[in-house]
Amino acid sequence: MAMRNYKQFLFLLVAAVSVGLISIVFVLQWVLYFKEGLAWDGGLAEFNWHPVLIVTGFIFIQGIAIVVYRLPWTWKCSKLMMKFIHAGLNILAFVFAAVSLVAVFDFHNGADIPNMYSLHSWVGLACVLLYSLQIIMGLCVYLLPITPGALRGAFMPIHVYSGLFIFSTVIATALMGITEKLIFGLKNPKYKDSPPEAVLVNVLGLLITAFGGLILWISTRPSWKRPSEQLLSRAGAGSGSPKGSVILSVSPTTDRDNPGANSNTSKRN
Amino acid sequence: MAMRNYKQFLFLLVAAVSVGLISIVFVLQWVLYFKEGLAWDGGLAEFNWHPVLIVTGFIFIQGIAIVVYRLPWTWKCSKLMMKFIHAGLNILAFVFAAVSLVAVFDFHNGADIPNMYSLHSWVGLACVLLYSLQIIMGLCVYLLPITPGALRGAFMPIHVYSGLFIFSTVIATALMGITEKLIFGLKNPKYKDSPPEAVLVNVLGLLITAFGGLILWISTRPSWKRPSEQLLSRAGAGSGSPKGSVILSVSPTTDRDNPGANSNTSKRN
């Protein structure tokens, strides 16, 4: 089964993954080259796990988890397997976020810096709590076999919206974190003198914003949704060739888990 | 013509407007009670116009501009008039943002603080430039009478996405701005000592995040879209009573300006 505007999808996906991976390189460059490196010693090198784990897990892995249903080469996999992958990636991202919080609290307690005073910490903790709630609700509604299909359908708009809202707010929180750390961490020269570290980390902020923008675009195009299960089985699960295969357009659906999915078909040309 | 889940819509709209207005009260409380007040003197009181104009214009007015087509009591107004209101509110928000930038540059130049070194300034300037581009493109595509209908339809997903992306990024930028200003502005007690000003402004950050979340929810519910013009004229422009009138459900549309709008109807009960 082929996707509409497949080349455009592929281009944007490659762009998103590239920008995400470059962000990880930038955050590693920051802590390994400009800062104290990485260690679990209660000091600044332990703090440095915080940005590394947030960019790698809470931003990059969460972003991939959001778009994983949309990869057309996964459409031959069962819906249940894709749910496990989606849930697994989100749980992995949550573990990264949780460990990154431990690193900050450890560092603050060792350096006698108060916890939870800044807007960054308030919004960030809210994100982690909402994310854990999102994962628990997702598991109960979409992986517990006893949950009625009507509830799954009714909850889907909330699940999708919450996921994208939390993801966006995580990125906003990271931008606040970058701002804090560059102000507190740069003393001579200061942030306002624009030393190379400041420029590198500002660019990191632009990169994660661009990553967020790409993931949000990919995940909100109706024509790139995973088709309904009925349609996939009708079209033949093994058909991967774009030529002469069925393409998709937007319409209401009957797939109980995926109320916005595409369900009508038209022959290409 | 009545809207689906009209009470829920009304509740969320009232919540959004209330949270937005409370944000404006909070930012005024901040600059008038805790800071130097408002003046156009090249000093800190001039800087204070920056957060006031951003929260009032670039956040609140832009948010209202985004949802203005969705107010069901405007569905009896012509599409052209609604376009003028949407464009007018966005241009007003742009003027607020532009004046707020002048206030910051004036203050920086007077106090010998460099311009454009922080991530806040980079992302913020990008928002203002993208917003001006968004307004120019919107005027050319949707208000120039010579623009072909096919182009209007094809550009709509980009126009909607860019609008919501810029709006979200403005809020992220405001959160960075709050972080900067609380770190630089609070000296004794410091930000980390959580004085009342810090708590007030952190809460302001939560309020504008909630405002953003409400506007994004309202503006992305397919069933709350302004119906297509054909449907509105068929249903009779004067029918404002919910009882026995036509209600809307999601489906593809033929309205050239509004490719995702609702166009099929069903009798209520």
UniProtKB/TrEMBL annotation, chains A, B:
One example GO MF annotation: transmembrane ascorbate ferrireductase activity
Matching InterPro entries: CYB561/CYBRD1-like, Cyt_b561/ferric_Rdtase_TM
Keywords, in A-Z order: Cell membrane, Electron transport, Heme, Iron, Membrane, Metal-binding, Oxidoreductase, Translocase, Transmembrane, Transmembrane helix, Transport
Complex formation: Homodimer.
Coiled-coil features, chain-numbered ranges: none
Segments crossing the lipid bilayer: 9-32, 52-72, 84-107, 119-146, 158-178, 198-218
Catalytic activity field: Fe(3+)(out) + L-ascorbate(in) = monodehydro-L-ascorbate radical(in) + Fe(2+)(out) + H(+); monodehydro-L-ascorbate radical(out) + L-ascorbate(in) = monodehydro-L-ascorbate radical(in) + L-ascorbate(out); Cu(2+)(out) + L-ascorbate(in) = Cu(+)(out) + monodehydro-L-ascorbate radical(in) + H(+)
GO CC terms in record: apical plasma membrane; lysosomal membrane
UniProt key word NADP: no
Membrane topology annotation: Multi-pass membrane protein
Subcellular compartments: Apical cell membrane
Compositionally biased region (Polar residues): 260-269
Species annotation: Albula goreensis
Protein name per the record: Plasma membrane ascorbate-dependent reductase CYBRD1
Record domain Cytochrome b561: where: 15-220
PANTHER family assigned to the protein according to its UniProt record, in alphabetical order: CYTOCHROME B561-RELATED, PLASMA MEMBRANE ASCORBATE-DEPENDENT REDUCTASE CYBRD1
Positions of the UniProt region annotated as Disordered: 231-269
Cofactors (names): heme b
EC number: 7.2.1.3
